[in-house]
Design a protein that fits this description.
Largest sheet: 2 strands, antiparallel
CATH topology of one domain: Arc Repressor Mutant, subunit A
Strand order of the largest sheet: 1-2
CATH superfamily of one domain: Winged helix-like DNA-binding domain superfamily/Winged helix DNA-binding domain
Number of helices: 10
CATH class of one domain: Mainly Alpha
Distance between the termini: 27 Å
Oligomer: single chain
Length: 216
Amino acid sequence: MHPHSHFRHHHHGAVANLSDYWTHSQGRRGPFGPRGPFGPTGSGPGGGRPPSWGDWFGSPPPRAERGGVRYLVLAALSERPRHGYEVIQVIEERSGGSYRPSPGVIYPTLQMLEELGHARVVEQDNRKVYELTDAGRADLQEHSEEVSDFYERFADDSWESYVENFGDIMKRVGRLFKTLKRAGRHGSLSPKILKRVGEVIDKAASEIEAIFDEER
């Protein structure tokens, strides 16, 4: 489906036609609205603050898969007994500050490991901490490669090491959005033009995907 089809047939009728699309896109959370990355000065790139991961993607930075968190916790406990907050700190430090799991993730994981018999609660310095069991060490050993692979994502070669380059790419993407916005305001987005634009975007996207495939 070409991009112009989306302008005319939006799910649930939220955006019924092209005019409505531009109105929607400039809403509070639209790409050109005050909360969007291409909104007014001060709300995104070129504004009063640098863009964040959420500005571009509306989601947090890369994080551990749901099932993989347990192995990060086991790895943190393998060094010495720790309480939940210490586990969070260890994971954050090992990821270079790129990933900080929330207490809502870590504490249920610790409880699950205790129920599995992979960790146990012990008292240390008048406070309760979690200690790895033999079963936990065996589980960690079987999945040690997953832990190493996860932290390697945040090594010197991670995307954060190239944040300026990444920002430059996103500025170019922003130029595309702004061009479409300007054309929409001038009434230049006819079905014929949108079809041609869609074909160009599809070709560019395929070439970019091929670049990523080569690096895998």
